[in-house]
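This is your field. Please look over both lines of this record.
***
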Amino acid sequence: MQYLLMCCFNEAQWNAIPEPQREAIMRDYGALLQSLDQSGQHLATGKLQPTATATTVRSRNGKPVLSDGPFAETKEQLGGYHLVECRDLDEAISIAKRFPTLPFGGAVEVRALEA
């Protein structure tokens, strides 16, 4: 079964982490993804640009309306995703628990893809 692991972090909090520490976190991410590649579980990854670059499209009175920024104001923003192949939800959660941003305030939303 495929699971989408959505990585969320408060952008201001991320930017407050010293650059050397952020680089170490990203190296740890690389090592984690390499291990998932070796196990055959890693299917795709994407890192998103900051929310300041987002455009949201809505419909108002039957017409598309564009607005700058993310869809919703939240404390945490979606920063990227990882698509993985797992036996079950427990295995997907065990992978999410290994994400190196968790100790620094990050969150990972784990959701199964519909068949």
Remarks:
- The first strand starts at residue 2 and ends at 9.
- The mean pLDDT is 91.
- The chain has one domain: 2-112.
